[in-house]
Amino acid sequence: MSVVDPILRLRGISKKFGEIVVAADLSTDLLPGQALGIVGPNGAGKSTLFSMISGDLRPDTGVVELDGVDLTGRRAHERTRAGIGRTFQIPRPFEKMTVFENVLVFATVGGGLGRDAAFRFAAETLDRAGLGAHANEAAGALSLLARKRLEVARALATDPKVLLLDEVAGGLTDPEVAELVELIRSVNAEGLAIIWIEHVVHALTATVDRLACLAGGRMVADGNPQDVLVDPIVRELYLGQAVMAEEDLA
Ligand SMILES: Nc1ncnc2c1ncn2[C@@H]1O[C@H](COP(=O)(O)OP(=O)(O)OP(=O)(O)O)[C@@H](O)[C@H]1O
User: Fold this and answer.
1) Domain locations along the chain
2) Residues lining ligand 1, Cβ inside 6 A
3) In this structure, what are the phi and psi dihedrals at residue 91, rounded to the nearest 5 degrees?
């Protein structure tokens, strides 16, 4: 029995798209400050799981609790306000707005801060995300790495209790991945619980203290990253291909 209450609790989450099962009575807990990585084959339902946590998609069944509060009936913007922060696989910043304005919108609308507090928090968040020097640039002009940083910064600007990161390392070079890992590690080290879906396995293993593999709507493995990486089911379902893909990129 855990003496620490989970910050995020999922109970009996099920979802089908037609005949495709993307969540099969899925239950799991995330502890405060924990960093959970999720791997799994393409189409396994990883992003769909995030959408069901963030309220962008309704599960067929199941309960989502954040810090002891049942969010099940709440819509996405209410969940953001409650403390669920998420990034999207394809960053879609407001291209014509500046980097600062992008983050300010999230601090105001997502985080619910008043004008002065939102200005202060947006500035702090930009620095935290390593974007201070880009504050006045148009978001549409950023490099891919800076766009990824902005995606993380927008989620952080809502002052989340749990941060959901969806393939933020995709498309980056190895040195860029290392920079992003440093950012995410520092955010986690400050105490923020994270769940990170990622195909770039070495980015995950550099960051997370727990790894799960999602396939067929179930967590087929879940535990210490080093154990999960050598799990025969994970290797057969996913990891062989992922390692090959990483080697191809090298
Ligand atoms: N709104 C939707 N309507 C119907 N099917 C959907 C919808 N969203 C996702 N799917 C399907 O559900 C399955 C799971 O998709 P999801 O994007 O969650 O997978 P994933 O594990 O994140 O994959 P990847 O690693 O490729 O990003 C896929 O077969 C996808 O085509």
Assistant:
1) 1-83+160-215+224-250, 91-159
2) 17, 20, 22, 40, 42-48
3) -65, 130
